[in-house]
Each structure stands twice: as C-alpha cells, then as structure tokens.
Amino acid sequence: MMRSCNLGPSFPGRIPLPSNQTAVLDLSNNKFSGPIPETVGDISFFILSLASNQIISAIPTSVGRMQTVHVIDLSRNNLAGRIPKSIGNCGFLQILDLQNNYLTGRIPSSLGQLTHLQTIHLRDNMITGRLPSSFKNLSRLKTLDLGCNRLTGIIPQWIGDAFPVLQILSLRSNAFSGELPRKGY
User: Fold this and answer.
1) CB-based contacts of 7: which residues, under 8 Å, 6+ apart?
2) According to the CATH classification, is domain 24-177 in 3.20.20.105?
3) I want to staple 99 with a disulfide (CB 3.0 to 4.6 A). Which of 83, 86, 92, 121 is the partner?
C-alpha cells in the first residue's frame, strides 16, 4: 500500500500495477499521472483505489473484467470521457466512486445490473442525460450522489420505492425538475 506517501513531485507515465493477484491496491493521495493501464482488468482486486492523484485519461473498458472487485475509487483525478458500460460486469461491486473528475456522457444503464451496489458517487463531473431506469434494481443503495453534473429530466417517481435503505440522496446543482416522491421518504 502506498497511500498518502506523496512520492516525488510527480510520476509521469504509467501507474505501477502488480504482476500478481493483489487483493488491495491503494495508490491514493499521491501524484501519479498518466493513463490507467488497460491491463488493470487482468488483476483480481477486491479494492482498487487510485483516488486523489493527477491521472489524465479515460477509464479503460478493461475495468469490466474485474469481476471480483468490491470497491473502485478513481475520485479526484482528471479522468475524462464516458463511464464505460463494462463496469456493469463487475458483479460484486459495492462502492463506485468517480467524483471530482471530468467525466461526460450519460450514466450507463449497465450500472443497474450491479445489484450489490451500496454507494455511487458521481458528483462534480459533466455527466448529462437522465437517471437510468435500470437504477430501480439497486435496492441495496445507501448513497446516491449525483450532485453538480448536467443531468436533466423529471425526478422519477420510482425513486421513492426503489431504494428502501437509501440514507443519502444528492441531486443538487443539476437541471432536474419535478418533486421528490413522498412515498419512501
């Protein structure tokens, strides 16, 4: 683990990945830069945290090959592009934290396949479109943080029933319309 080591002024180029199966890779709070290697999907992580670095790239589609991952934290970087649909293949994912990046496009409906998800942080990006109806399947969701994006549309009525254990709902600073459903709140 190299968390908060603040190694060097910066590390241009590739992020170092272990060659063997590693349960936890936490390289957060450093100054790593460069892209996330496409080979990240070839390692069986339970936790992958590259948060609070200076990573400038898109999220590689290979993350969808990490079928045993429980936590993906790529927050507070300079990631751009779309959230890959392949993340929907990470069947044991419980926490997805992509906040404070420059992600664009729509939220992939494939995230609704992640029935173990408990936390989604997509705050402070440039994500557009509507809340996917596939999110109805996320009955274990405790935190849904979509604030400070460019999301639009009427707040879906199902949001009051679909998340029975929801504790935190942040939709602030978007372009949603309508009212929060009273049932379930």
Assistant:
1) 30, 31
2) no
3) 121
Give the tokens for residue 78.
């300079």
- Interior angle at CA 35, CA 40 and CA 49, nearest 5: 55
Residue that is written with structure tokens 């549309």 in the block: 153
- Tell me which amino acid residue 165 is: V
* Strand positions, DSSP E, 1-149: 24-26, 33-34, 47-49, 54-55, 71-73, 80-82, 95-97, 102-106, 119-121, 126-129, 143-145
CA distances from 95 to 6, 19, 33, 38 (A): 25, 24, 23, 21
Q: Are 135 and 157 in contact (CB under 8 A)?
A: no
* Domain residue spans of the chain: 24-177
- Dump pLDDT digits (tens) for 6-58: 445 555 556 878 877 789 999 999 989 889 999 999 988 999 999 999 999 99
Low-confidence ranges of the chain (pLDDT < 70): 1-14, 183-185
